[in-house]
Write a structure and sequence with these properties.
hydrolase activity, acting on ester bonds; SGNH_plant_lipase-like; two-stranded antiparallel sheet; 427 residues; SGNH_hydro_sf; lipid metabolism; globular; six-stranded mixed β-sheet
Length: 427
């Protein structure tokens, strides 16, 4: 993409918190290396032919480093995360290498996902230039609802705030190009969203703040908020949306490791219901707005295909995580050493003891609790062949599996994408 760098290197920018930040003149080295990184992100000629820029929203499925800047308990900036990335560097991606956002970006002509919004905001000198090349707003552990993830993980950036961050980006683009050209530029961009899993997990753990709602009411609340935020993006100029639904999270190692190795049907049923509701929501938006176009990826069906016939997708192990601790490597995240003060997936209080009152409430997955606190340092188990696993850690998939998902999203038929695949959406 050939833009005049000087045109986009204004002397100040308005940050997300509303303050005006001036250039840090002694930060030339950081700026230089970050610009090199940005240029390496993009295969300029190919990307410009398919889609001019990407704006990416969601949770850990798409996060490329947002949480590195947050006071959050969920981060992927320590080994063994990133072990297959360039120089084995843990970038903040919840993967051994590239994630789904990267893999989709590659199929669109980019080398990987654009940088996180907080990466760009941290280097103000190049902010106005780099937002034209794309921005990733995704935050691990976040959800559609405002308070999703906060009780378990601490600070995460919910979808509402991600949309607010894009509003800042949109405003800067308008200042750069003028209203007419800015509207045209944003309308040609692709908006990718992958979110919802954390909302369902929080509902199951009774941590969403809406525990008094039944499943159907909670689903309706999720969709109402989802509709609001997608519509807001449309009002800000977005026209093309690539959306991924929730996978069978009841089959994740974090869940199966405490359920005798078996998937938890109620969690999977919620994921299926979420997909159907999202399908209805997007059809509604396409009827309301003539220029609204979308491709909805049925991630649930994609995962089920890999679980049913893993060898067809180059996979061997679809049950255990490649990296983790305990049963199926599903009892903790992928860290070289883990000081564990909780056992299992969100089941224990601050003293390491499961709350028995919750054990009997929520869909039967809390069958096991520990009478003694779990306070010890554990060494993480790492598989030899990263590429033959579906799951990288207790809650995330491998680079190889991400590549498979991206291929289905981009080229898949009606069983995997609705109403058209991503290649048709952007063509």
């Amino acid at each position: 993409m050939s833009h005049d760098a000087n045109k986009f290197s204004g002397t100040e920018m308005t940050s997300f918190n509303g303050k005006t930040n001036s250039i840090i003149t002694n930060n030339y080295a950081s700026v230089f290396f970050f610009l090199l990184y940005t240029m390496s992100m993009l295969d300029i000629n190919v990307a410009n032919e398919i889609v001019p820029t990407l704006y990416i929203f969601g949770d850990s499925t798409f996060d490329v480093g947002t949480n590195n800047y947050l006071n959050s308990k969920t981060k992927a900036n320590s080994p063994y995360y990133g072990i297959d990335f360039h120089n084995s560097f843990p970038t903040g991606r919840y993967s051994n290498g590239l994630n789904i956002a990267d893999q989709i970006a590659r199929r669109l002509g980019y080398k990987k996902s654009p940088p996180s919004f907080l990466d760009l905001e941290n280097l103000q000198y190049s902010f106005k230039h780099n937002i034209m090349l794309g921005v990733n707003f995704a935050s691990g552990g976040s959800g559609i609802l405002r308070y999703t993830g906060y009780k378990k993980w601490g600070e995460v950036i919910c979808l509402e705030k991600q949309v607010q961050q894009f509003a800042l980006v949109s405003g800067n683009i308008t200042k750069i190009l003028g209203p007419t050209k800015a509207a045209s530029f944003v309308s040609k961009a692709l908006f990718l969203i992958s979110i919802g899993s954390s909302d369902i997990f929080d509902y199951d753990r009774n941590e969403s703040g809406v525990f008094h709602l039944g499943k159907e009411e909670n689903l309706a609340l999720l969709q109402l908020n989802y509709y609001t935020y997608i519509r807001k993006l449309y009002e800000l100029g977005a026209r093309k949306f690539g959306i991924l639904s929730v996978p069978p999270i009841g089959c994740y190692p974090a869940v199966t490791s405490i359920n005798g190795g078996n998937c938890v049907k109620p969690l999977n049923d919620f994921a299926v219901a979420f997909y159907k509701a999202t399908q209805t929501l997007l059809q509604k938006l396409s009827l309301e707005f003539e220029e609204f176009e979308y491709s909805l990826g049925n991630t649930y069906a994609m995962f089920k295909a890999m679980l049913k016939d893993p060898l067809a997708f180059g996979l061997n192990d679809t049950k255990s995580a490649c990296c983790g601790i305990g049963k199926l490597n599903g009892e903790g995240p992928c860290l070289k050493t883990l000081k564990q003060n909780h056992c299992g997936f969100g089941m224990l209080n601050e003293d390491g003891l499961l709350l028995k009152s919750l054990n009997d409430k929520l869909w039967g997955i809390r069958k096991f609790y520990k009478e003694e606190p779990c306070l010890k340092t554990l060494n993480t188990s790492l598989c030899v062949n990263h590429d033959d696993h579906l799951f990288w850690d207790w809650l995330h998939i491998t680079e190889r599996a991400s590549e498979v998902i991206a291929k289905m999203v981009f080229e898949g038929g009606a069983e995997f994408v609705f109403p058209k695949n991503l290649s048709h959406l952007v063509s």
